[in-house]
Amino acid sequence: MATDPIKLPDQLILKVKEAAAREEITPEELVRDAVETRLSRGEWRKTIEFGQNNARARGLKPEDIDAEIAAERAELKR
Questions:
Q1: What is the largest CA-CA distance in the chain?
Q2: What DSSP state is assigned to residue 59?
Q3: pTM for the model
Q4: What's the angle, vertex CA 75, arms to CA 70 and CA 78, rounded to 5?
Q5: Within 10 Å of residue 27's Cβ, how many Cβ atoms?
Q6: pLDDT in tens, the chain (78 residues)
């Protein structure tokens, strides 16, 4: 695994170490999990935006979604 130093304020490093100790993991594990979570959130945002744009383009309202899902599942079963 490649390593690259990343600078953080002293106060944040202290918080990371304390949180990691409470969770009984290394500070590196805590930071890695936090970064992966943040990156995943960005991917989810893209997915949600795609769905919203698709629904808007099709003129769907929130109350239409359950029926659309059911219709798609029925189509896939055929």
A1: 60
A2: T
A3: 0.61
A4: 130
A5: 15
A6: 778 888 999 999 999 999 999 999 999 999 999 999 999 998 999 999 998 999 999 999 989 989 989 998 998 888
